[in-house]
Write a structure and sequence with these properties.
Number of strands: 17
Largest sheet: 9 strands, mixed
CATH architecture of the largest domain: 2-Layer Sandwich
Helix content: 40-55%
CATH class of the largest domain: Alpha Beta
Radius of gyration: 29 Å
Bound molecules: adenosine-5'-diphosphate, magnesium ion
CATH topology of the largest domain: Creatine Kinase, Chain A, domain 2
Length: 730
């Protein structure tokens, strides 16, 4: 095995292939997706129209039409060199799953031919027992089905020696319970659409037929050299460094964020972008992030369902391309202690089928009243359901960001910016007796500027910020599937819109329409304003203030996840027909179970690294120091050698402190082992709470002494690549 220094020497010699001039992106964007345009050219007009109706109104196509599309899709895929297909889905574990089947069938005469039928396209049956169902499916009924989601186009993935047609699907149990993250998202889109259409009708906008949410997910990540990565089993097994002393230089100088992007990294980014474009992911910006060797990709926003599929696909592409460049792409939320972690901001808005963004203020007072009604619905929704929104970002990895001293805090709040805050205040306090056009304008409501983004005053610390025409939810971890948070946002907003409609309709009996709306807005702002906060969300003051306001602040993931099963959530999700009680329970159990497993793996990996890599090196150094000390003491008997006072004590002190660190490492390790044994016999909830409150802190105790050893041990005895190498040598 090569040593750290061999690896360091070899890094500069990684050769990058010279790139020829690339064709324009427009000439190959989506070349590997079976788009509607491609389909239109390959199937009959009736079939294509039927397919469009399925996409837009949920009217399912006939089996004959499915056969025709399947046939076209197969021909297209084969013409691109694909040999097999897979139903691509998103199980509740957060990864994507695929089971590949070949296109070939055997004819009666024993001849092999390619065939793909409508029934195979529409429905698949993966070995469902290997995916967690959270108790939805008893083991005797292990069957689960994947069903084609026509709203997301099929695409081809390629490796050097093979191409595969991937068909985006939902994953359901045999009685229709959602076993994945995509079906709830689709259901939440329906809920949002229904409620928003009702609201638009109430505001006399009758020509809209469809409303959907849009999303652009900014994806942060770290890049490190792959050779170092392979030398650290903590990174390979858990995604994060479990030990590692801080580098003298970290992110203090902030020189990375504004610096130019290194050539090696740019090559990687260009390669990722090219792969992403081929499968139709509209990657738009790429830049450095705050921490050393931390970067970000952001796509142009799309319909949320597509954005969610594309983000899963992008993460996959990022990891695969990294290998080609001898790099490792780290998507863990906190790969390095003491250095910023990686998040994923989801930019969320609502659009109608005319292409209007409903979070854009309008041109007339009436349109602005609608805009404010939607805005206030969102404020109400986030206030009432901040617990489930927080839970949607809960995971073992993200726990190092939320609630630790890092962006954003575990307390959910909304930032509106100066202009909108003023208007909301006016709404709350404005005297509303009647609200004719002139009164609306007097309240400032008629005068909303088109461009609301307050560039001078952007609050980067807020978990849920209005950033002009969209909200940015910043609590998600870099590794997470965005479907869950979008599902929650869609659902709580749909429910809040229903509430607004009901209240406005009740008030309409006694007031004219505008006055009724203004009165409801004022009322709802009063009820929900505790969620609005314009200050620094990382400050100690905010923690105290939020507590006064009664806002939940739950750093522990296991505790945060409980929001999935409380009565308020269950009623909400059942009312909006997004998730049933059983489905919510399943999610709670699965995500808790994953949390427990992650911490358990981390603790065991830490113990192994310490026992097999840290302690052996520390013992040899201890021996070296001990024999040195002995020789030193002997030499001091020689009167011809003049030794300064204190020199012997100094050597002794060094030995003592080294010995103490070794002792404490071992003592804490034994304690950790004991805690893990205790945890093993606990029930799931108790175990996860125990892992959070006892095991994680104990791992930190071990780490503290290991890191202290790292800072005194000779460089050549230290086996694990150090922070300064991981973060600055690539
Ligand atoms: P910022 O500077 O606030 O990060 P950008 O305009 O650069 O804003 O956009 C950041 C992300 O927000 C991009 O991924 C972009 O596609 C997305 N975005 C912009 N408008 C919308 C919208 N209406 N709905 C959803 N996402 C959007
Ligand atoms: Mg942003």
């Amino acid at each position: 095995m090569s040593s750290r220094s061999d690896v360091t020497q070899s890094i500069d010699t990684v050769k990058v292939k010279k790139v020829e001039t690339k064709p324009p992106v427009s000439s190959y964007f989506g070349i590997n997706t079976f788009s509607n345009e491609t389909m239109r050219d390959m199937v009959s007009e009736e079939t294509f129209e039927a397919f469009k109706r399925w996409q837009e109104c949920g009217e399912i196509i006939s089996m004959q039409q499915a056969d025709e599309i399947a046939h076209a899709m197969k021909d297209w895929a084969i013409s691109k060199g694909a040999t097999s297909y897979t139903h691509w889905f998103q199980p509740m574990t957060g990864l994507t799953a695929e089971k590949h089947d070949s296109f070939i069938t055997m004819t009666e005469s024993g001849k092999v031919m390619e065939k793909f039928t409508g029934s195979k396209l529409i429905q698949g049956e993966p070995d469902a027992s290997s995916f967690p169902s959270g108790g939805i499916r008893a083991t005797f009924e292990a069957r689960g089905y994947t069903a084609w989601d026509p709203s997301s186009p099929a695409f081809i993935t390629e490796v050097e020696l093979g191409k595969t047609l991937c068909i985006p699907t939902i994953f359901i149990s045999h009685n229709g319970d959602a076993l994945d993250k995509k079906l709830p998202l689709l259901r939440s889109e329906d809920a949002l659409c229904k409620s928003a259409l009702k609201l638009l009708k109430l505001f006399n906008q009758k020509d809209v037929n469809n409303v959907y949410s849009t999303c652009g997910a900014e994806q942060e990540y770290f890049l490190i050299d792959r050779a170092y990565y392979k030398m650290r089993s903590d990174l390979m097994l858990t995604g994060r460094t479990l030990v590692g002393a801080s580098s003298p230089k970290g992110q203090q100088l902030e020189d990375q964020y504004f610096g130019s992007i290194k050539e090696r990294v740019l090559n990687y980014m260009a390669d990722v972008a090219e792969e992403a474009y081929k499968v139709g992911i509209p990657v738009y910006t790429r830049h450095n992030e705050v921490a050393p060797h931390q970067f970000e990709f952001a796509p142009i926003f799309e319909k949320s369902n597509l954005a969610a599929d594309n983000n899963q696909l992008l993460m996959d592409v990022m990891k695969k391309v990294a290998q080609r460049h001898n790099l490792a792409c780290l998507l863990h939320e906190k790969p390095f202690a003491g250095v910023n972690g990686s998040g994923k901001h989801i930019n969320w808005s609502i659009a109608d089928d005319k292409g209007n963004n409903l979070l854009n203020p309008g041109e007339t007072p009436e349109e602005n009243l609608l805009f404010l009604t939607i805005l206030v619905s969102i404020i109400y929704a986030v206030h009432k359901h901040s617990d489930i929104l927080r839970a949607s970002a809960a995971s073992a990895g993200n726990e190092h960001r939320l609630g630790a001293n890092e962006a954003p805090p575990a307390i959910v709040s909304i930032f509106l910016g100066e202009q909108l805050s003023k208007i909301i205040n006016m709404l709350e306090n404005g005297k509303i007796e009647k609200a004719k056009k002139q009164d609306i304008i007097d309240l400032g409501v008629g005068l909303l500027p088109q461009f609301m983004r307050d560039t001078t005053d952007r609050n980067r610390t807020s978990p849920f910020a209005f950033t002009g025409q969209k909200f940015e939810f910043r609590a998600l971890g870099s590794n997470m599937n965005i479907s869950t948070s979008i599902t929650v946002i869609n659902t709580i907003v749909a429910d809040a819109m229903d509430m607004m409609i009901e209240r406005i309709e009740a008030k309409k009996e006694n007031y004219d329409f505008s006055t009724a709306v203004m009165k409801v807005l004022s009322e709802v702002v009063k009820e929900s304003k505790a969620i609005l906060y314009e200050g620094n969300n990382y400050s100690e003051e905010w923690v105290i203030e939020a507590q006064k306001r009664g806002l939940p602040n739950i750093p522990s993931s296991p505790q945060a996840l409980k929001a999935y099963i409380n009565t308020k959530t269950v009623e909400l999700f059942e009312r909006q027909k997004v998730l049933s009680k059983i489905e919510l329970n399943a999610r709670y159990t699965i995500w808790l179970d994953i949390y427990g497993k992650v911490i358990d793996i981390e603790a065991k990996t830490l113990m192994e690294i310490v026992k097999t890599q840290i302690l052996p090196a520390a013992y040899s150094y201890q021996n070296e120091i001990a024999s040195g000390l002995e020789i030193f003491r002997d030499l001091m008997d020689d009167t011809s050698i003049q030794v300064v006072n204190g020199a012997l004590d100094d050597r002794k002190e060094m030995f003592e402190s080294l010995t103490a660190d070794i002792y404490y490492v071992r003592r804490n390790l034994k304690e950790l082992d004991m805690l893990l044994k205790k945890a093993e016999i606990m029930g799931l909830e108790q175990r996860c709470d125990f892992l959070f409150s006892e095991v994680l802190p104990q791992m930190e105790h071990v780490r503290k002494h290991v890191d202290s050893l790292e800072s005194v041990m000779p460089d050549d005895l230290w086996v694990l690549p150090k922070y300064r190498e991981l973060l600055f040598n690539a």
